[in-house]
Amino acid sequence: MVIFQGQTPQASNIMGGVKALTTRVFDVSDDVDDFTVGGFLVLRGIPLDEYNANKTSLSKAKIEYSAMATYGQGKKYRTEINSAYTGDYGYRVTNLGRIGMELRKDSPDGEKIGYLPSLASNMLLYADTTEGFAIYPVFVYYNKSTSQVTTLKPTSQFETVSVSPRPAAGSEIQAYTLPADTGATWDSIKASLSSPVAYVTITNSVANQSGRVTLSGTNRLNSQNGYDSIGSGETLTYEIKSTDAGSPQAVVVTYYNQALQIPIVDEDGKTPTLKNGYDYTISVSGSGQTAEGYSVTFKESAEARDLSGQIESL
């Protein structure tokens, strides 16, 4: 079996070959840019005779193996190319959802039959007999904010399909569609997302003075783009770790080499409570050598950020 990396087999993404009844280890640590953080690879496998017959047009070759492999520092991924899922019989599966899915046999934790990317249409999967079985779709996605691969398993038999393999080259081949409810799957994933920080955007309207944004006047914060100070007339955003329910955060903007400290207060004049996932806008203006000569505005967003953009389908 010739193994490829990526959705579409092509000569440039061959990883190598695996002989029948043998095991081979592939080391990708030098081939990916984010190995220490972790990520994923889509794997495809083509029988050697199919590869040789279709070298000039690999898109026409028979893909008998597909999987999604995760990687990362200290992690190992093991998969088996099961001969029961190769052969002359087949069925087609369409994934209508925005999230890729692993197909597993007869249970959510069963053998991995294959992998369908999001919106895959009529993907041909193979079997060695015409014996029917159930397919469980296990949705797999990557959270860019946490750098984690997560799975969402079906909880009901009614989320599965029962397939009947038929001769792959004949007219009796069956076609199936998953998932049962595309919206419910996406909503479940979105509901599981959370932000680890509050997003605080500060405008320094103090003339001719750069400031430093701190917690409690001493713990200096860098902005999202790495700046350690905020210039006069400049607006920068800072990420401050808090809690989902919210906790008081003593944000203080300091001037004149920390000789002047301007505490940030909310509309009630109290230390503001910041909630993870929410946006806050703050402006500091004024002049003079004492805090009384300065004014602060503070505003919280009506809702938390929509984090659906943090999800990457595998």
What does this structure look like?
Helix content is 5%, strand content 39%. The model has no long low-confidence stretch (mean pLDDT 88). By secondary structure, the protein is mostly beta strands. The relative contact order is 0.12. The two termini are 23 Å apart. The protein has two helices and 24 strands. It has helices spanning 48-53, 182-191, and strands spanning 2-5, 14-17, 39-46, 65-71, 89-95, 100-105, 112-116, 123-127, 133-143, 148-152, 161-163, 166-167, 175-178, 197-204, 212-215, 219-220, 235-241, 247-248, 251-255, 260-263, 273-274, 279-286, 294-300, 311-313. The protein folds into two domains: 2-191, no CATH class; 197-307, Immunoglobulin-like, CATH 2.60.40. The strands form six sheets. Strands 6, 7, 9, 10, 11 and 24 form a six-stranded antiparallel β-sheet that branches.
